[in-house]
Structures
1.
Amino acid sequence: QCGKEMVMSLLKKGMLFTLVLVIFFTASCIICSAKENGIPDILLRGLVTYKAKGADAAMTAWIKGSPIEGDKTALSQANIFRQIESLYGAYIGYDLIRIVDITPSSKLVYIQMNFEKGPVFASFLCYLKKTEWIIENLDFNTAPDKILPSDLLFP
């Protein structure tokens, strides 16, 4: 009886360890895949933070190191997400729409942020500051024509 309980305990611990490894490698693959697509780390950190800690923490992560860091107007954009969440439900993930490399040190990243009941479209103007990307400007809207360039909507 005691041996059987010990074997079951070891199996449970082994399964838990395996589950932790699977989650870790899955998250790593998602981040690696996004990096391969050219999405700056700061943008990814904000998206991961949004899912884990909410809109205020995401906004703080997105504007870290930028000229608008600490700006109350920029931080108040988190209110937009609270309004969106009240209608669209929880944030569940994102889809990359397009990255436009403007110059070697600036790019526009267009994504669709997926919520339980619908999408929110976003653009991020990213700038390479020395060796790290920062976000200079960000914009969000539930209407794609307010965010996306017309050639995406009307090819």
2.
Amino acid sequence: LYFEHLDRFLQVFEGKQIKCLLYDDLQASPREFMQEVYSHIGVDPSFEPELIEKKYHTRKARPRFQNVYNTLVKCSKWVSGLGRGAAKVVQFVRAKGWVDLFHRLNRGADFPELSPQKKQDLAAYYQNDVKRLSRLLDRELHNKWLHPYIEKNKN
């Protein structure tokens, strides 16, 4: 639960040391989101990485061959940790588009949609936490995150 974890951090750190951002904001406006991050950590907010518009992991499907996928991820991390030369191998593989090709070939079935009842149960479970987080962040989150799921099934 977000509020509980955030509240623990706020008990230890000053409020100005913590910047709480929402994934919704990153999706809506990546540039402004990153400018907020940069400003908070002392980086020039005008800095703009080359890949600001690139979308990663946007598919909602399971890998067809999960074990192969997990092994390749581990190998990539291992090779990247070997040093600069080895990390260049991983960059080369990515630049050639082989990673994207693998993801296309390894696409499995889409994740199943949650049932309306499961959505309603989850919304009820998180409702109090979302209200507390809304107050803490001074942002209205209930209507966006929970209202559609609670109200649809009351009839």
